[in-house]
Amino acid sequence: MKNIFQSLTDKLHSWWEGFILMLPNLAVAIVIFVGFIFIARYSKKFLNKLLNKVSDNKAVNRLLANVITVVVVLIGLFIALGILDLSKTVTSLLAGAGVVGLAIGLAFQDPILNVISGVILSVKRVPFKIGDLVRTNGHYGFVERISLRTTIIKSLSGEDVILPNKIVVQNSIVNYSFSAERRVDIDCGVAYDSDLQMVQETALSAIESNIERLEERPIEFMYTEFGDSSINFTLRYWIKETGEKDFLNSRSKGIMEIKKAFDSKGITIPFPIRTLEFSQDDVASGIVGKGNA
Predict the structure, then answer these.
(1) Chain segment 189-229, per-residue pLDDT in tens
(2) Cα–Cα 20 to 30 A to 23, which of 12, 95, 146, 203?
(3) Phi, psi (5° rounding) for residue 144?
(4) β-strand pairing of 160-164 with 173-175
């Protein structure tokens, strides 16, 4: 019993000596850890201000600032543990964090990808921003909001289309507002007996004289094909308004001006015509009469 008590006393004494010897390291470790906490707190405020200048999405800005803050605190924790000579503890924490991170990544793969995609979409130098007119994943409308997980597009008929950020980033995007100009295409056809040179001059004059457009971009006129009942052409011009209403109004006015100019020149825009040919045998056998009956 006396030996057991002596062993216990020696053990407690060694612990006490170890604690006394560890006090300087413990004090330094606490100071360093507290210092990193203060650094993390002030860096969070600084990052919020900096990120707000880069991105308009406050939710994403807060997320990035919080992530960086946690990283700074963890760095301070690991340095403090290293000063306390707890390298095995640091190794265990890192290994545990790796396993937990892998498990979380596998379990929440799609949500994490959506969040990362949301961060990418919230940066200013991206394919679109709030208010742009875009076409993506089969949907066409104005970008209403970009959150951490989803992008909301308001269609031209008023519905809100909610798209996961992952598919927005991974698929093609057509941004009609990016270039600050837009091309109007008008397809039409004229009768086969028309004077094609006069048709071209009349259509170009109608657009040039009556439509507001970008003067630095010339109007383009091209005959495209011999149609079933008409010779078809495409006329193109550029406007500075990129909104859908402005685009549709410009095209509508262009169609009206071309029709008015053609009517004044006696140029015919034919209806679709189908010619049916019958032989004398068909007439004699009564096929034509039956068809008309």
Answers:
(1) 999 999 999 999 999 999 999 999 998 899 999 999 998 88
(2) 95
(3) -90, -45
(4) unpaired
Looking at residue 186, its amino acid is I
Q: Which two tokens stand for residue 103?
A: 């498990």
H-type helices in the chain, by residue range?
2-54, 58-83, 87-107, 109-122, 165-170, 196-210, 244-265, 280-284, 287-292
Same domain, residue pair 83 and 134: no
Q: Are 144 and 233 members of one domain?
A: no
- Whether 222 and 135 map to the same domain: the answer is no
- The answer to whether 211 touches 165, Cβ cutoff 8 Å, is no
Assess if residue 150 is contained within a domain. yes
Structure tokens at 258: 């071309």
CATH number for the domain spanning 135: value is 2.30.30.60
147 Cβ contact partners less than 8 Å away, ≥ 6 residues apart: 57, 59, 118
65 and 14 share a domain?
A: yes
User: Residue written as tokens 């062993």?
Assistant: 7
pLDDT in tens, 148-201: 778 889 998 888 999 888 888 878 888 888 777 889 999 999 999 999 999 999
CATH code of residue 91 = 1.10.287
For residues 192 and 171, state if they share a domain: no
For residues 187 and 233, state if they share a domain.
yes
Segments forming the whole domain that contains residue 23: 2-107
Tell me the whole-structure pTM to 2 decimals: 0.55
In whole angstroms, what is the distance from residue 182 CA to residue 143 CA? 18
133 phi/psi in degrees, rounded to 5: -90, 115
The pLDDT value recorded for residue 255 is 96
CA distance 182 to 23: 72
Q: What CA–CA distance (Å, rounded) separates 251 from 255?
A: 6
Residue 218 DSSP symbol = -
CB atoms within 10 A of CB 123: 14
